Fold these 3 entries.
Entry 1:
Amino acid sequence: MSNRTLILSILAVLFFAAGGFFLLNLLFLDAYRMPTVSTQQLRVAEMARDLEILHETVTNTENTDPATIRPVLFRLKEHYETIFGEITADLDPLLKNRFADYHTRIWPAMERWNAAPGTGEIDPVQVRSDLKALRKIVLLAAKRLEKESLAERRGAILRSARFAAASFAVAIAIGLFGIIAARRSRQRRDASAAPAEPPTDNPAGNPPPKEHRREQLLLKRYRDILDSLPDGVVVSDASSGRVQFINRTFRDRFAVGQDQIGETVAALAEKSGMAIAEPGKLTAHDTVYWRDITEVGGAVLHLVRDMTEQDRLSNRLMSAERLISIGEIASKVTHEIRNPLSTIKLNVEYVADHAHDLSPEELSASIALIVKEVIRLEEITDRYMGMVRYRADEESPSRTPLRDAVAEVTRFHESEFRTRDIALTVGDLPAVELGIAFNSFREVLLNILKNAWEELDRRGAVAISGDIADGKVRLFVDDSGHGVPAAEREKIFRNFYTTKPGGTGIGLSHSLKLVTEAGGDIAVTDSPLGGARFVITIPRG
């Protein structure tokens, strides 16, 4: 039995079930709601009519011939007593007693009146009242008999409906069971009739053909998704280092084929000219690439992304920022060089006017003051020019060993920490190289350490540590100072923003520019030492 036949059989059984339940609803629910009249209800209704006739007869006795009354009374009494015996057996005790009480009061009086109608031996008013009360009792008995009859009839209908529904459900279950049993029997017959496959074609542990097809379909879908990505993707085995998959983007971009699958990652790198085993930024053939490596479930995912356009936009943005900085610097420099220039001007004018009157000592003092102010001007210009200089273009692209660079900076400024009684500790740093020039990194680290010892002033602690996260190196510089409020953590990296007396607001903004040019970032958070933690993130070299 095929899947299509099985589905059609089950749908047929379900359709049969729906139709059967609909018919049951029509048959039993309509019968349940249909009002019925039993034989006892008809007899009680006849008794009520007899009592109504007796009531009219007694009421109209003065205008009726006695000869015509006696046959009517005899017939009514005989009919009444016949019905009375049939219905009183089914009444409840209270209603039966009331019925019998009025019965014993009315019929003796009616017999006396029947013997001599119109003689006055009975009270017509009392007889009419008793007849009226008896008729109400008869009508009440009729209602109770109707309710009991209806309850009994509905109970019988419900029992019949339940039995029919149960029988119908059993028939449906037997039909479904028969369909399933037939399918299993067909599968067993097909399995016994199919020829046995050689052990080499289906070794133990292989998934069944259906599951294998499903896995192949999923694998093809994943391959199609990876082929549609705009980035180059190479998947290799983590243990053997051999290539397992190369997506279409990588093949087209670097002119390699599927024949490289099964080769080592190093062989693929040599063939394609792309060192995919090393993460980070790489420029090749006027194209900027970003390489990333991720290990997932025993496989290594090599991602090669074309960052040429992003790099171009980043350079344009940095150029725009430098132009803005130049405008800010122009106003700042104008303000700062005014005082040294004024001092130089005054001393030059003084020497020019009194050159013949000045002694050699006075002349030397004036010239020394001029030289001092000139040196001050050089420091100001050097400080501000460093903010807009392209370090990446001027410095050597050689990589910077993290441990050596940190050791040199801390060793050179160790006396500064010792003089201020600040405990400087350097933790276990990863043995990696940074993708930033040595002089730029030294300047960045020195600016942050300088901020730390100026914040602490006297006594305290500074700690340097690092790790690797997401293919980038993170360097942590912690201090035990007062920290940086959350509202100022972004402002401190702006040009000329400072909260320190005598500060220029240049160090951190310049450090951020240097790190940004290298593809990194600087952030500040709370430190475990109680102060500020500067996090310098730089790509690996």
Note: Residues 202 and 317 are 61 Å apart (CA to CA).
Entry 2:
Amino acid sequence: MPVNLDFKEKSTGIFEMTVLYCFNDCILGNAARGHTEESFPSNCRVQDGCLTVFVEVNRNAFWMTITFRQTNLRYGTAISKFKEEFGTMSVQLEKLEKNMAKLTIEVSAEEFETGLEKAYQKNKNRISLPGFRKGKAPRKMIEKMYGAGIFYEDAANELIPGAYTKAAEECGENIVTRPEISVVQIEAGKPFIFTAEVALKPEVTLGEYKGVEVEKTVVEVAEEEIDKEVDKERDNNSRMIDIDDRAVEKGDMIKLDFEGFVDGVAFEGGKGTDYPLTIGSGSFIPGFEDQLVGAEIGAEVEVNVTFPEQYQAAELAGKPAVFKCKVNEIKVKELPEADDEFAKDVSEFDTIAEYRDDIRAKLVERKTADAKRQKETKVVDKVVENASLEVPDAMVREQAGRMLDDFKRRIESQGITFEQYIQFTGMTAEQLQEQSKPEALKRIKNSLVLEAIAKAENIEVPEEKMDEEIGKMAQAYKMEADKLKELLGDYEKEQMKNDLAIQAAVDMIVEAAKEV
């Protein structure tokens, strides 16, 4: 693809177009269709009705110069087609530190003028000017009244996406982040110049990845673990018993009326009626629940606490408060005995011993699967540690942003808005994103290293494997596999193939690893 273009009329009816290419690929230029070979200088040649001229500058760049004479009315079409194919934009690539790059993109003054005119047409109906009906004021009059730059922003927004996309293709680099755009020059009658700072895909130098040694995870099940599982089932089959002959004790489930005061004034959100609270759960601010131990049903109790310094409600943070409380109800949880009758009620077994053996077998199965996952994680971590690569900060920020978006979707699927979550935790979106950066970096490194292994091992994904994966997806979405396959675009299929190749690389290095 070309990265510069000069077009000019050398003399009456004689035109010259010059294009600089920055790739040492075969170059073909198409222009001046319909002209005869006699119309051009002797150093030009016409092939299939298209004029092409090549002059090599060096091993990485070429000049292509086309000179032709106006021989009929179709020369204007030839010029238009040439400009449409090659554009009137230049781009310079500057490599920065840590796999960053800056593209300096120049859009011709002519194209910028076209962008200004589009911006004017888009906005003219919203602009009022004395002496003109709305939408009828000439552009020059609007620019004179409101300033020459009134349409600059819209013109830039019109031009930047297309110019950047073309420049990104032409630069030949593997760009992995969205661009950070900065305008360098924007003025009517001059080329529009802007820069785009981007991260480039890091190169990976693989270290040892076959036969790495990792610590073996031993699968064992202790009796205490079985007891814990039995107690969970006892808790699931418990019943609540009303208590009316004693005061509140730790572990009790109570219903509570309360109202909070700071400096003798009730504060917003500090009042509740029949609020369910388990004593010792830590649901309230520190010290609150402990002071309810010993409270009698119906008796009023004052609880004195101090709000934490980092409390989410800034107006209460660090302040002492008094809560007037009344316990309305006390309940305790009664658990069934872990005996044969219990085993019959909660399982298919007749004795508690058989029930415990079944729990042990399921724990072994679960732990074995966990051990397999742990081995995979250890092996991948070791292989990534053995490799070397430099990940740009911008790549990490973008990955962390995607992780934050995924987190928002997950909590919203649970019926909690992100704004509510922020309020409950006292965290900001920026803090959450910053916290996720270490995991973001790890994911990026894992993906790049495993992708490099798949490439080094020439791992290819057969169509049968692709069809199998599409079949699983179709089943999950309750669709026909053939229909889903039609809906998937080339990018989605290529991404799926890449993911399957990476998983194959994981399987290979895990199989080759040694547990010690």
Note: Residues 1-15, 18-65, 67-86 have pLDDT under 50 and may be disordered.
Entry 3:
Amino acid sequence: MSDLLTVRGVTKAHAGMPVLRGIDLDIRPGEVLGLIGANGAGKSTLMSIISGAYRADSGSMLIEGDPYSPLDKAEARGLGIGIIEQNFQIDGSLTVAQAIYRNTYQAQRPHESLRRQAQWLLNEAGVHISPDARIGHLLRPEMGLVEAVRLLADDAQIVLVDEVAATFNVREIADLHFITSRLTRQGRSVVYISHRLHEVKDITNRIAILREGVIVDIQKSAQTTTERMAEMMFGRVVNRDKRTTTHSSETVLRAKNLRGGTLQGVDFELHRGEVLAFVGPRHSGISDIVGAITGDRPGMFDELEVFGQQRRITRPEDAAALRITYFSEDDIDLGVSKDESIARSLMSGGWGADVDFDDEVAALRDIIGVLGKFQVKAKSILGNVDALSGGDQQKIALARFMSEDCDIMILNEPTRGLDMSSRHDVHKMLSELTESGKSAILLSTDYEDALDWSDRVVVVRDGIVWRNVLSKDCTADQLTLWAREAEKRPRRVWEDDESTALAEELAVEQEAEESALRAQEEELDRQIVARASRAMI
């Protein structure tokens, strides 16, 4: 069987800096091909070339043997290339149904005429989101699932999935994996990018490893290990870090009977120098806990103590005054302007007529030190943040956040989009900060990170604290089992009686259709066996 897509000798440079140095890659029909590499290795640049967003500087591509060189994304889409981009954007005013069909010939149809077929696809994918929900009301991971369902509606034969699952939880990753398997059963091909190596290994048939702009190895997923994958990515052995620092018994934050939103009475404590991780299903109440502490959401406490003093937090300014800082899971809220220079983004002060020479030199030295520590690939510190890879932009935001003067840090998905080596650097910096007396609350859907980085893990379910365990006494598999148990009946997002009735009606129809297909397959099998028996007689 011929390859669906052939890439030969593709090169690309940005601002005179080589990114791709001669890519050779084949994509086979009906396979999931993993693409992994360090931050800045060129993964998204390659996807942009295949999807028509960029033009290659040199090299060639073929689709089923025919020359392929799209002028733009629209032409690529017309030739059978679909993509979920790393920083995808969807019009928030669209309904889920409209978003699913927005790149098809049905894009101009009204919502009412799309909702039934959209619900059919959502049911088929096992995604529990109402077709009537507005995109602007969904969380970022829920938007990512809508984008994945969109691929079922598109006619794309080659689907590029660029780091869309960076903050997906266990349930959402399972939904995404089901969708990719559905696509490949239809004979379509998927290129899957993720920094979660165990996830890539589980979902793919083959894994292409990109290092310094070159494909250095292609491995069969069933015959490799995450350790070998990481070693090929970096050209050296990379080990996971385990938290080894100790914390004091001094309580810096204590919440008693926290209520509001989905919360039904939550108690917890955070100690000086401690990292406390919260994990749980998407709508378990973790967001309400964090929102109450940061002042972004209303919360009622019987008692809220910060450093032994009774306090009230009703707005973000209250949290800031108590030296509580928050690192958002939403890239838009990270406080780093992509139009700003790298140097300006990292400077706590500034430079100019009011800053003396020694201060400017010290600031520049700090900036260069941060770029070196986090291995940010930049041609110049005066270049814009927007010119960096998605992972390197995340590093800049993290470095800026962790340099803030605070006592309590709340980090929401801090390692999203970061490779293993960069995670090591962030973990080391977090350890240094907690050793100096700062405390942290960590929210992560990567359970290995949650355990490796924290002292304790709190599992939240249905608005209550369900488990509170020492990290050293738990495993990622155990957390995964608890998460699945906590979400035995998935919550439908933005459901109402009408959308729930439609989902249940179509589920009955789909089950009847599947039963009829199974009966046909069983009858065909019976006929084949009967013919074989007669032939033997």
Note: The two ends are 37 Å apart (CA to CA).
